[in-house]
Specification:
Layout: H1 31-54, E1 68-88, E2 94-108, E3 110-118, E4 122-130, E5 136-155, E6 158-162, E7 180-200, E8 203-205, E9 210-215
């Protein structure tokens, strides 16, 4: 009977499949190379874990499973900063977002909407409006968005600044080191439309607030 193969060590000199036999490596993985490929992904995950532990990610709460839409006729802000970050939902899943932070903001004709689909009922819309006559006022405003559009004007804008060194927006408006960011002294946006996961604010004054729930899909845009 032939000797049983030695299973304690894989063949080859690089910790993987040997190259001496034709076809010997088919369907197998060179584990050392595999480890090298997975190191970056592991490092990113570890970095996000550290950021989570330090509270350095975007929203300070677990976000829901629904995005909402926000629109405004115009927005005027002082102390603008924008950078990439990550939200976390109740399942501890990571959600990439672009954080827009404004130290002081005024919004005219604000609209916020979210649509929920329920079994046996269908779509249910929650709509909130404010600032039709007097602007909505917010301080230390943070919006974790996945989409933003409108006509924007910035003053003294800095594009490509390290996210960890931002100093024009709210004091807490800083991202992770080496990540792209931008900031400006002021921002003016007309025809604002954005889709977001979360909004935080130090103060949020809603003049002429109106909220209603209706059947069907009724969104701000």
């Amino acid at each position: 009977m032939a000797d049983s193969p030695n299973l304690s060590e894989p063949p080859g000199t690089d910790g993987g499949v040997g190259t001496g036999d034709a076809g010997a490596g088919e369907g197998r993985v060179r584990w050392r190379r595999f480890a090298l490929l997975t190191v970056p992904a592991v490092a990113v995950t570890a970095g996000l874990g550290i950021a989570l532990a330090q509270g350095a990610l975007a929203a300070s709460f677990a976000v829901s499973g629904q995005q909402f839409k926000v629109s405004a006729k115009s927005l005027e802000g002082e102390g603008f900063a924008q950078y990439g970050s990550v939200d976390v939902n109740a399942r501890q899943e990571l959600i990439p977002v672009a954080v827009t932070a404004i130290r002081e903001a005024k919004l005219n004709s604000l609209c916020q909407s979210v649509v929920t689909t329920l079994p046996m009922i269908g779509d249910i819309s929650l709509n909130l409006t404010a600032g039709q006559k007097k602007p909505v006022e917010a301080t230390n405003l943070f919006v974790d968005a996945t989409q933003l559009s409108g006509d924007a004007v910035f003053t003294n804008i800095e594009i490509g600044r390290d996210a960890s060194t931002l100093d024009k927006g709210p004091a807490e408006a800083q991202g992770m080191q080496d990540l792209f960011a931008q900031q400006a002294d002021t921002v003016s946006i007309t025809g604002l439309q954005q889709t977001a996961w979360a909004t935080n604010a130090g103060t949020f004054k809603l003049s002429g607030l109106s909220m209603n729930i209706s059947k069907g899909k009724k969104e701000c845009f």
